[in-house]
Structures are given as C-alpha cells and as structure tokens.
Design goal:
- The chain is an alpha/beta fold.
- The chain has one domain: Spore Coat Polysaccharide Biosynthesis Protein SpsA, Chain A (Alpha-Beta Complex).
- It is 34% helix and 17% strand.
- The protein contains 10 helices and 11 strands.
- The strands form 3 sheets. A 7-stranded mixed beta sheet has the order 5-4-3-6-9-7-10, with helices on both faces. A two-stranded antiparallel ribbon has the order 1-2. It has a two-stranded parallel sheet with strand order 8-11.
- The chain is globular, with a radius of gyration of 20 Å.
- The two termini are 12 Å apart.
- Bound molecules: guanosine-5'-triphosphate and magnesium ion (MG).
- Magnesium ion (MG) binds next to loops.
C-alpha cells in the first residue's frame, strides 16, 4: 500500500462521527458486535400454543419487543405467550389470513428493524442476528433463503419445492431479481420501508408481495441462508394448490402496480452510509 493511501485511510471520518449515536444507544449482541437500531420481532400465530415455548426459547435476549399477532386462536396461544413473556405485545388481528396478521403486526412495531418469523417452530430465532447483521451493514430488506448455500428445509415436499421453484423462476424473469427462494416466512427489513411494502393482501401470498415490492422499489435486497424445520405440533394452514394459485395471481397483478417511492436513510450514519475511506 502506498504511503499516500495509508495516510488517507487513517483520517478520522469527521462527518460520520458527527452522526454516531451516543454510546448508551448501543445494544451488545455478541462480544464482537453492538448495534444502535432496535429490533422488533413479529410472530403471526394461529393455534400455536404448544409451539410457542420452542419458538421463544430461540429468541435472542437483545430483542427490543416481540409482537405476537393472534389469528382468532381457539387454543391457549395468547395465555401461553403472556405466561412465557409477560412483556409481550399481543395484537388481535381483525381480518383473516397470514398477510392480514403481518400487516397488523408491522403497524404495531416500534423498533427500527422488523423481523418476521413463524410460530410453528419451523424458523429458528438464533438466525435473527444474521438478518440484523445484513441490515446494519447495508441491506434494506433481507430474505431468508432455504436454497442459499448453508440453508435447507425439512419441510418442503417435492410438490411444494416444484411449485416454489416455478413461481420463483417467474418472479426472477419478470422482475429481474435473482432470488433463490420466494415463499418463505423468515424475512427482515428496516421499519422505514413499511410504506414501500404497503401490505394489502390477506393470505400466504404475503411474502411474494413483499419480495416483489422490495425489488420494484429498488431496495437493496440480501439473502441469508436459513434452515427451515418441520412444524413441531399442529397442522399446516397452507393449501398448496389454493395458495400457489394466489401467489401466481399476485405475481401478475404486481406487474401493473405503480413503483413505490423509497424513504432514504436518515442522516444518522450506520455502516450502510459509510461510503468508505478511499
Ligand atoms: N395470526 C395469524 N397467523 C397465521 C394465520 N395463518 C397462518 N398463520 C401463522 O403463520 C405461520 C405460518 O403458517 P403455517 O400454517 O405454518 O404455514 P406454512 O409454514 O406455510 O406451512 P407448513 O410449512 O406446512 O408449516 C404460523 O406461525 C401460523 O400460525 C392467520 O390467519 N392468522
Ligand atoms: Mg409452517
């Protein structure tokens, strides 16, 4: 490295330092990493009382809030959630479906970052740090991917794999994306992008809507590998043909939808705003 470059990179970045949050705003996640944004976790849950202890046991201690969206459960979902986490925020969804539940949960969040995970024990809260890590280092929207290297699924049957692969291929072709997964319930994003996502769908097409709108708006989308387990107790609410058809109609409908406007990063510098020293 030439002496000039060394000198240049050693300069303190005054403009960045000026916008750094004060020390007390940082939450340590590991001995090597502390972040200033707060993290909300949204969990849609319909009759998942038996699974909640497993799900909550994987959630990291540094989460700012858990928002559980109850889908008119007829079991003890809400009571179990309150017993396990007395500080939990419960949102009762008004309508029906996972999309409707997530929209209600997102609207109730107070964190800077929103992570969505399932309540059936299939998604592991210990992966949240990877989603958050990608966001604080530059991503706007982070997709969990079961097909990325290091990811996987115990839950995908042959027909679901085939359906997901056809629908994903269609999205990549139409919207110019390079997604390796499409219909997966583990995702995270900066809360300021909620306007871009502008959720207005009811069912399991919700992840497709989010993925397409993020791409159309030009958000920086990263994928992180994720390992999906089979649900622990209870039965799936997904109906492959019905919901696959809904996803297909969504892919076509979104094509004609106007491109949403992105809200840019505020002046407070995160590493995302760090343009580098050179
Ligand atoms: N609040 C609410 N949650 C829902 C609704 N439908 C599904 N969920 C939750 O959304 C998550 C995903 O639903 P699942 O039934 O597991 O569907 P899936 O993961 O696509 O299907 P499987 O792979 O078979 O488990 C779970 O936490 C459900 O409890 C709903 O109408 N309202
Ligand atoms: Mg599931």
């Amino acid at each position: 490295m030439s002496p000039e470059i060394t000198k240049h990179t050693m300069k303190p970045q005054i403009s960045t330092l000026r916008h750094m949050p004060t020390f007390d705003r940082y939450t340590p996640l590991t001995p090597n990493l502390a972040i200033s944004p707060t993290v909300s976790v949204v969990i849609p849950a319909m009759n998942e009382a038996e699974n909640l202890p497993h799900v909550f046991a994987t959630l990291p201690h540094w989460i700012h809030e858990i928002v559980l969206v109850d889908g008119h459960s007829t079991d003890d979902t809400v009571a179990v959630a309150r017993r396990l986490r007395p500080g939990i925020r419960i949102v009762q969804q008004r309508g029906k479906g996972k999309g409707d539940a997530l929209a209600a949960g997102f609207a109730a969040c107070t964190g800077d970052i929103i992570v969505m995970i399932d309540a059936d024990g299939s998604t592991d809260g210990r992966e949240i740090i990877q989603f958050v890590g990608a966001l604080v280092t530059g991503a706007d929207f982070v997709k969990g991917s079961r097909y990325a290297s290091g990811g996987g699924s115990d839950d995908l049957t042959f027909s679901r794999r085939l359906g997901n692969s056809i629908l994903r291929g269609l999205v990549n072709k139409i919207y110019g994306t390079k997604y390796t997964d499409l219909c997966y319930g583990y995702n995270a994003f900066w809360a300021r992008h909620l306007d871009v996502l502008d959720l207005d769908c009811d069912g399991f097409e919700v992840e497709t809507v989010m993925n397409i709108r993020a791409a159309k708006a030009g958000l920086k989308v990263h994928e992180v590998p994720s390992r999906e387990r089979s649900r622990i107790h209870g039965e799936s609410n997904l109906r492959a043909v019905r919901d696959g058809w809904r996803v297909l109609k969504t892919i076509m409908r979104e094509w004609r939808r106007p491109v949403p406007q992105v809200r840019h990063e505020p002046a407070t510098a995160t590493p995302a705003a760090d343009q580098g020293a050179a």
